[in-house]
Amino acid sequence: MKCPVCGEEVDYFDICDNCGWQNSGSKEKESDLRGPNKMTLEEARIAYKNDKKVN
Predict the structure, then answer these.
(1) Would the pTM count as exceeding 0.85?
(2) Deepest of 3, 8, 25, 47, by most Cβ within 10 A of its Cβ?
(3) Which Pfam family would be a valid example here (predicted)?
């Protein structure tokens, strides 16, 4: 599947080698804050676009 932040290929529940987002599965919501990520999906996408660290 594709990383929901940067679009690189990543396995379910794996950490993306490109941006560092830990994938929580295919049904992630942009405003959810769950699992090991310290950002919401929306915050991570904005950070990635602005060349900031995703966590």
Answers:
(1) no
(2) 3
(3) Cys_rich_CPCC
Q: Domain tally for the chain? A: 1
Which tens digit of pLDDT belongs to each residue from 26-55? 666 666 666 788 898 999 999 999 999 998
What is the token pair recorded at 8?
Answer: 């690189």
Q: Is 24 buried (19+), middle (13-18) or exposed (0-12) by CB count in 10 A?
A: middle
SS3 24: coil
Q: Of 50, 52, 44, 47, whose CA–CA distance to 21 is shortest?
A: 44
Radius of gyration of the chain (CA): 10
Domain that holds residue 36: 1-54
At 29 the three-state DSSP class reads coil
